[in-house]
Structures are given as C-alpha cells and as structure tokens.
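Request: Could I get any protein with tokenized structure?
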Amino acid sequence: MLLASAPVAFDDSFSVSQDGTLNVPAAGILANDTDRDGDALSATLVAGPSHGSLTLNDDGSFAYVPDDRYLGSDSFSYKANDGVLKSAAATVAITVTNAPAIRTGVVSGVSNQNWTKVSLDHGYESMVVVLTPSYSAGSTPLIGRVRNAVGNNFEIRVDRADGSTAPITGVDVYYIAVEEGVYTVAKHGVKMEAVRVVSSSTDSRGVWIGQQRSYLNSYTSPVVVGQVLTANDGDASVFWARGASSSDPPSSSQLYVGKHVGEHRDTTRADEVLGYIVIESGTGEIGDVGYIANVGAETVVGPQNGAPVTYPPSGLASISTAVVSVAGMNGLDGGWPVLAGSDAVTPRGLRLFFEEDLWQDQERVHTAEQVAYLVFGERSEPHLQTGTVDNVNTTTWTTVTLDHTYNSMVVVASASYAAGDPPLATRVRNAQGNTFQIQVQHAGGSSVPVSGVTVHYTVVEEGVYTEAQHGVNMEAVRFTSTVTDSSKSWVGQRRDYSNTYVRPVVVGQVMSANDADVSIFWARGASAADPPSASQLFVGKHVGEDTPSKRDHEVIGYLVIESGSGSVGNMGYVAKVGVESVVGPDNGAPVTYLLSGLDSTLAAVVSPAGMNGLDGGWPVLAGTKPVTTGGLQLFFEEDQWSDTERGHVAEQAAYVVFGELSEPPMPNIRTGSVENVNNTSWKTVTLDHTYNSMVVVASANYSPGDPPLVTRVRNATGNKFDIRVQRVDGSAAPISGVTVYYTVVEEGVYNQAQHGIKMEAAKFTSTVTDSAGAWIGQQASYHNSYTSPVVVGQVLTSNDTSFSTFWARGASRADAPSSSHLYVGKHVGEDSNTTRAPEVIGYVVVESGSGTVGDIDFVAGVGARSVVGPDDGSPVTYAIGGPDGASLAVVSAAGANGLDGGWAVLGGSDAVSSNSLRLFIEEDTLRDSERSHTTERVAYLVFAANNGPTITSTPVTSATEDSAYSYDVNATDPNVGDTLTYSLVVAPTGMTINATTGLIAWKPTNAQVGANAVQVRVRDVAGAAAMQSFSITVANTNDPPTITSTPVTSATEDSAYRYDVNATDPDVGDTLTYSLTTAPSGMTINASTGLISWTPTNAHVGANAVTVRVRDAAGAAENQTFSITVANTNDPPTITSTPVTSATADAAYSYDVNASDPDVGDTLTYALTAAPNGMTIDATTGVINWTPTNAQVGANSVTIRVRDVALA
C-alpha cells in the first residue's frame, strides 16, 4: 500500500505600488508548488498580511491592497492542500513601493520559428511591454513581436520583413515591462504613463495618420516608446508615434500613435492592442533603477546609408536595457529603429539604424529620422576630480593618475603662465580609465623647450546630472569634432543641451592629439561673439591665425553647468561667464574677475565664451597664483603663427573654480531709521548682528523745500556703521533733524528656496565717476537670474570729502536695470570737479514683487517714469500696495533720464505708508540754483516694521550636582508665524539649548557647585531679540574619590617594594582613607598617605593579587585591583640530616646526607670538601660510604658541601 505524500509549497514574492492593487491570477501562488501524487492543489491562508487587505482564492489567485500610505514589506503565509494533506506553511512576500513596477532585461536566442516565453518576478494586472531587437545592419530586416502579455508572463519572437520564412535564430531582444497606469513625480518619483489601446487602423507607405491620443499627464518634452502587444494578425505590424505632422515627434500638445506595415502591399491588418509609454525627457530613477529618456537628433538612417549612427545617452554608468521607437516619420516608405549589433547598448551610447522592410523592393535606404529612446541601468555619478599639475612642459607628456576609474571621462584643462611668456596651448590625450596625459604646446611655431608650467584640470564622468538627483544641473559631453574654425571663420558645431539651463557656463577641451598641430576648444551662442545661451550652443575647435587651418578629427569634451555656486559631491564650485573685459598680453593684461563663495580654492578651468576677436584666441590663467578666494587673474592669449602681436579685443571668459564652498550666508537683513542726522557730525548706528561684509543702503527723508542733501556712509563693518548727510549746494551751514532710513544686508547671493528671497548684495570699488552729460557706469553681472530686477545702492565709503551718489542703469543711460543689463556706479551730478577718489559701492538686487525675508514683509519695485524735481511740483506718489505696516524704505534712481543727474529722495512727512511712497528726484545746486528735473523712474524697497519676541517663561534657578537640569524657555512673537531661534549668551560649561525649542539641558559638575550665571537670547528671523538673565545655584552631592596613580606591578623576592597610591576627590577638603582589601602576607598600607610597603619572600614568587580601596569621609569609595609579579632570588640549600659520628674499623659506615632548597625544583649536588681516605659521597643522593681501616681508629674530620644549580 502506497502512502499519500503531502504537497510542497514554495515561497513567492511580489511587488505593488503604494496606491495600486496587486491582482495575481490563477494559479498564482500555487504555480510553483508541487504534489508527488499529482493531486489538484488549493491554497489555505495561515496568517497575515499585516499592512494591507488580502483576498486569497482556492485556486491560488489573490488580490492585495496595501494600507493607505504604507510603504515597505508585507507578507502572508499559506499552505497548499491536496484535499487530504497540507504542506508546511510557505511565505508570500509583498513589497509595497511608491514607484512603478518596471522590469527590464534582454532575451537572447530569439527566433522567427517559435515564441519565447518571458517570465517576470512581478505579476501585472495590465502589462505594457516595449521591446527592441538588436542585430547588425547587414542582417535580414526583423520586427519584434509580442503576445499573451498577462500576469507575470509574455511571449516574444521576431518576424522577417522580407517575405521569407527561412529560419532566423540567435537574436537579442531588449524589453521593458510596466504596469498600465499614470505616474507622477510626487507619488512615484517619475512623470510617466503606460497605456494600452486597441488599434483599428493601419498606416502604410505614403499614408501616415495614426490615432490621436490625449496625455494623462502634462509634459514639456515627452518621450514615447511603444509596441504592438498582440499577434491577432499573422502578418506583423510595427508601432509608431508622431506629433502635429507625420514627420514631427510627439510634442507637449500633440500625440498620435498607431501601427504600420511600411511598404507591404497588403495594408489590411486585424485589430491589435498597442502599448506605449510616455515619460518626461531627462534622467532619473524609477525605484532603484536609473534611466535616461530622450528624443535624439534627426540623424538615424537606413542600413544602406552608412549606418549605424550613435546616440550618446550619457548619464548611466552601466546599461541593462534600452528600447527605441520612431519619433515622427520623415521617410514615406516607413520603417522602425533597431539596435545595431552586439555592442549596440553601452554607457557611451546607443548604436542605431533605421530599418526598412523588403516586402516590395530590396533597398534599405532611409532618410534621416529622429528616434525616441528609453534606457535603463545604473545611474552615473559625476565623480568630479580637480587639481593642478606642476612642471608641465612642451617636450614630454605628463601622466595624471586619478583615484577613480571612469567609464568615459571628460577632461578640461587650463594652463597658468605669465603674460610675458610665449603663447601656449594645453593638450590632452589618452583620457581613459583612471589616467590622462597632458602637455603644453607652442602656439607660434617655436621649438624652444618650455617647462615648469602649471596646468589646472577638472575631470567628470560623461553624463547628464540634475539638481534633484545629483545636487547640480550639469552635463559632461564627448563628441568627435570634424570641423575646424580659424581666423575670420567662426561657426562651430551646433549642439543640443540635455538639461535646461537659464545661464549656462560652458568650458571644454580638445581631448585627443590625432593631429600633431594644436587646436583649441571654443564655444559660442547665437552669434560668434555671443556666449552660449539657454537656447543656443555651438562648440568646436579652432586654430586661430594658423595656416593651413585644416586639422584631423579630434575628440572634444565639454562641461555645461548652471551659472552660480554649489557643490558636486564634496567639491564646492563657482561657475560664471565674466564680463567682456579680458584682453590680450599686449593690452595691459591680466584682468581680474572678482570671485566670492569659496573659503579656499583648488583649481580653475576657463574657456572662451564667444569670440569677439576675428583672429581667435583663448583665456589663460595669469601667473603663478592666478586663483584666490577673491578673484581670477586672466588674459586672452593669441597665437603667433602669422604675426608676433598678441593684442586682443575684450572678450568674455567662462570659468569654473573649485574649492571649499563657503557656508551659505544668510541675508540677516536689518532695517531701521536714524533720527536727527546732521551734516556736521557722524552718527554711529549699532546693530544686533555682526556682519562679515555688510552692504548698507540709506535714503534721506526731507521735504523738497529743504536744501539738497545726499546720504553718506562710512566704517560699515562688524555690527556698526557711521552715517551723516552732506549738503550739495556749496553751503556749509548746519542742517539737522533729518531722518534717514537704512537697510543692511550681508554681502552674498540669496535664493527663494534657501533664504525666502531672490536677492544679491554686492560691493566693489568704483574707480569711475560719472557726471552731467557723461553717463556710463561700470558693467556688473548678476549672480541670480531676474525677470524684473530692482537695484538700490549706496556709496559706502567717504574717501573723498566731496560728495558722490549711487546710480544704476540698464542697456542705455535712461533705462532701468533689466534682466540682461546692469551698470552701477557713482556720480557727482553737475559738480564741475568730476574727479573723485575711489569709493566702495554697495548695492542690493531683488526680484520685483512682495514677500517676506526673515519675518519682515517687503515690497520691491521700479515705478513709472514720473518722479520729478523739487521745482516741478514734487513729491510724486507711487502706489505700492503694501506691505501692511510699512514703516521705512530705501530708494535709488533707476536710470538717468536727465542729463544733469540726480538721486531719489523720500519726500517729507508720511513719505512711507502701506499704500504709497512720496518721492522726488533731487539735484545738486553746485553749478546753478535750479532743481528742476525731467521725469525719472525710481527703484524702491519697502519694509514693514518688525516687532521682537518676548520671553514668557520663568527660569529654574536651582540644580543639584551630577543631576540633570532642564529649563524650557518659552517665548512669543507678535508677528504670526515668526520663526524664533534660541541661544545661550552666557552659560556654564556643558550647558546646551535647543535652538528651535528653547529647551536648556545641563548636568552640573562638582566644579559648578554654587552660583552659575546664565543669559538666554531669543531672536526672530529679522534679528529682533529678547534676553533673560538669571543665576542657577547648584547644590553639592558627595562624589567618590578617584585613584589617579598607576600601580607598580613588579617586585623582587627579599627586596623592598613600594607603591604610593594617589587619589583625588572632587569634594574639596574631603579626607581620604586608604586600605588593602586583598593583599599578600606582609604587605601594609599607610591609611593616611596610601603608601604600600612590602618585602616579598620566596613564597611570594609569581603573581600576587592586590586590591586597594580609598574611601572618603562619607563612605564613597573606589577600588584599584592589580597583580604584582615577584621575581625569584636564589636561596642556598640547607642540610637537614644529623651526621652519623661513630664507626668501627673494617666495618661499613654509611650516612645519608639530606638537604632542602627553598627554590622549588632546584637540583642539589653533594661533595666532600674534607674527608678521611676512602670515604665517598654520591653527588646526587648525598649518601656517604666508608670502611675505616685500623690506621683510622680515632677521630676523623669530615666536611660536606651541598650546592644548588646557582652554586649557592
């Protein structure tokens, strides 16, 4: 009789998105379970799940819905039942994710003879599969087909598109599977949708329509890949997608998808299910899998056009799969993109060609098409490294070894040498793995060796990097340059950005040395003279004035990064395109680009940003120390191939400087008013914040009938500045009682995300003075990007006793600063003395609008061109619409419409309110007495009053030594929603305060027994503060003593041993008593001094345990336990036997000498030193034998000696 066997159940695993439902069809969890008897199995729930609801059916199918907002692991257990016996419990693990369940892979060995089943580790409710075959351009045209895409399986094969049925085997097919649905960045980390739709129409040669579809998300640059998901028709059809026209790729507003049969004569097909994926162009991660999605350039051609073409996906360190689809259809015959051969998918790029069928003809020529691609793999990291190489020369290549191995490195290098040195170009070659080689080369035909050149470099992994995923908006690109620009011919090669940039900074390098003659990287924007812009990028190599101008093809690497400061990994950087001021060595170079934002600098790389000079050139770091935290020194180099001059028109240079990023400053805005300011003495304004580098803007408030005044500032440093007004009418008569409003900001660049305001505060030394009829200013660059900038400023020093006042303009004298043009400076109006000493100018730029900085509400704007002079019926009113409680403002002229010059003044009483500003444009009366002025625009920055916090809690003023003390400081602020920060101004050692909650924590020590002073400060964001001072009395708690001495752990037998035990007690004056709780015999300790005395004996040889205890008067004690190792001292043996003293002649005499030795194990040797004749002794046993003769009758003297090994 055979016994029935129990079934065996195996564990399973599934995943489901956070807001999805996991539906697993039969046989579900039973699919991999077995029963030796072949019995039908059913599933029985044992336990679980814990974080969702489950419906488990007998046939193994189940539905699982995770709990709301749950993410993580869940599970349930079940048993397989054959109707009689049950299996042991098996576990079904379910991972709840907030990302789509995407599965990717490649299937090898696919053929056209049978279907290959692909099983996934995830069960789909409604699966969308996209696949792409990979084969060489010389192979037969193939179409990838899919069917039975359900649950966790689908089937694939390839169909020939040439009318033949001959077998094709060994084809690799890449695939992507995803759950049909709509995915958002907020919920799933990716903007994407996966859709299934029935296609009832078929497109073909010359007829390209598709079926119009609507997006379920909103996309800026959609990437669409798709697949025919069924095989209802025996003949294949191919997915395609388009935009507004058949040749356009899908756009943000237009999407058509469909199936087509190319040139097939039979254009009728059965209805098929199409599946397609739409994803926003760019890079990212879905779950833990990186991806890059894009629509490539219109370059992919047919197998007979010289294909394949390479698309550089750039952004993945390794690639697991890629799928591609046509993005529009340029060619009337139709076709589809194919991955080209065995190395079609690598981190360096996708190798593609555009396939055509051979149903009607044998040609496979195809016009250039755009291809949409979706690539998955391990996301690339920038792995930025930077540094300098010393002693580079013109005769040998220097190898630079890096601490990271790159898949595809991009190197940018800039030489540093003096303007008087020969012109040199930096060359790079063999940039791969973890090394590259570098050399400098003469750019003038000289062969005289040059050495000792320092070259700055930066290395980045080729790829596309985003602020969200990598902390920086950047891309590093390599491509082969086939065009060479030269003197008077500046074109470059058009390139597309993979990211979106507002103000791109582009630096680059020729990275190969295929041609022995040098060529140099350059980049431009819309025209040769323009820097790269947000929409226009051309890059290339040039040879300046060299003839011939032809060069071999070279690899160019370039880096694009958003202008500003930040960090890449742990490396800080500042990137910018400087002003058009860098000139040639013959023009008085070098020029300094001011730099801020780095505490230290490591290296810098620079490149041309446009090319003003027709002869060409390149920026060079000037001298031995061209890069400091304060600036870059540069000149614009020219070659000497056709002449020896090195003069060059002013150029812009793009630069990226690397180093330790400064802590991002906070604006720390302080606003206020100073009353009773006069023109005879300086008033010192003391602030509650100490600044590293303050920018002060001040505006006087007086009536149009008063004499003309300018506000002057000096000594703006730390937490103070001095202020006064100065008459500008030639009179020295006293003026008093003037109110001056001020705003103080820490110099720096601020953004909405970090600081709550888009703003920058800058300082520079003005060496140019404008005056009536001569309005130029000094060009400045914004560090932020502004739509409507508001610029207010101030002359911050008083180096010249004669007045000057701040002004700012845009593209022309009369224009206000704009998003693209900013000039700032100082002017002296109609003063006939137009010479002034250099002065420091400070200015603040803020985006027009309203907001809150710190907790101060503000409104910033540039008013209409309506403000006139005191003689013109001023003041004029600007309606400003806030802020509530407006109490002060600072104002500056925005442009100089009037040729005589002027400045904005707040006009008398009620000049600042929540609804309006009253203003006039002041003029000096140094040349004439009139103060009439044409209409001007005024920039204004208006602030509401800030009310400080109040501490409402009562301090805890007592504490106990060694016990936890706490005091929760509570404060309120009348400004609703104000953020308060707590700090300790005065505090005992060890006391801390939580800056956010105000909780003080402390554990006082014995040293803090008694009174301890404390001062707490609470400050709001605008700097208003409240203080609370109190004293905490700490009560003493007895503390045990501590033994501080190190024991003496060795001694010698029979020698005196000493150890002076030392101990301290935190309680001053405590009496200590010493004792031995464990000790060898004979050891003593002085109870008062702790001195241990002892003379060890032979019995103590070896280890001896000792424990010393020291106790204070209150009984608190500490023990010290140690062991003393006693070294042996040799001891002599002792004869313990009594001699036999009588004998008889001729009779045997015997005496057994016995001896002992204190040293255990010592070997004894016996000897006779005096003995009668014939007497012997056994040296080992000590036995004496003797037979005395008649001659020896009488007394016989005997001396015995026993000796140990040490001869004692």
The domain at 1042-1127 is CATH 2.60.40.10 (Immunoglobulin-like). The mean pLDDT is 92. The two ends are 92 Å apart (CA to CA).
